[in-house]
Design a protein that fits this description.
It contains four helices and 27 strands. The chain is mostly beta strands. The longest helix has 12 residues.
Length: about 425
Amino acid sequence: MALIPRDLGVPFDPTIPLQLAEFDGFGTDVPSTQGMITAVNTPPALPNANSVRAARMFKPSLVAGLDPTAPVFPTPDFIASPGRTFGRSGRELVVINIPGVGPVDTWSFRDTINNIATWPAPTIRLREGQLVHSEMNNNHGPHTIHHHGIEPTAMNDGVGHLTFEVAGGNYIYQWQAAEAGTYFYHCHRNTVLHFELGMYGMLIVDPAVPGAPFADGGAGATFLGDDIANYQSEAIWVADDIDSRWRALDKSAGIAAPGLVNGQPVFMAWNDPANPRLNDFRPDGFVVSGVAADPAQNNTIVARGKTVVGGQKLLVRALNASYCTTVWKFPETLSGTVTAVDARTLGRSSTGFGSYSEPFSLASINHEFMLTTARRWDILIDTAGSSFGTHMVEIEFRHWITGLVLRTVRLPITVASA
């Protein structure tokens, strides 16, 4: 095991109780729903600390009288009548075929209310302002649900170690859809591995207008600054890459509780046989919304293309779920406006973000933009001035360090006559 300082230039002093407690807490925090009750009722070993830091979020009165073996941990400040309720269980295996590689097991979530399992996982979709319950249960735990871009209370944020993990039983995450936009949800336990293995799905918050929430891929409405803009079709394009070698790893690969040697923290060494080398990512599959690109077919994913009638509007929701940097190139033959970035509407005066931004045209950025991991853009395409026929959108998957283009995927937008 190699000795690695906590931070360069910041010595670790185990004689300082708070430093030792924080170090120990970070190394040992894998609390489960069942373990939280005991943790809350256990006095900290050191002043102002607790061996399970997540227990600080809960008052002893919350868990008083609860059965420590109960499979359900109560949601603090629970509101019994939410606007929407969703159920998700993990892990769910979904097999996809990667040309040149073969069938690959992909991890996902099952929609337990509608009994549906897809990859990416079924969309969570609702109206702006609604109170939401996301009920998580596991057959493969521990896992979590993190609603990426939503700002809930800590106990509903689903970040492993910093909150807690659902090892078994279930937990209801309670949160509010404060602002319309394109989000996504994912497992935040051993995140580098579980996200790459596929434990994510779209989360879309529609404006609070008649007909919302809308169906994926169909007609709907979005904000254009302070105004509502209607669209007749929707493309949800999620770029992802797959390293098939990682499919052989255990769900806890790479997690090792650090210890102390001569008063210094000890972490897993690069040459430790147990080290899964999650820094060594070599994608051999490139997909868009669950469909793999085939080099023999010129990497064109027709199954994820969109057809719209000339004069109609198409809303493209673009998410980079890959570890590559993606460059999205739209043809000059399509007129597009970027309406939102990372679920924040540009130019919407009712939000702080809107006070220093405004929608802008794709033409103003030479019809291309770059998305790093987890970033999202919304683009409203107006086909009123476009010719009939196929207009190709390209996504370049570039190596995140060298910038080398590893694969280019093509997605057709077809403008048809009425």
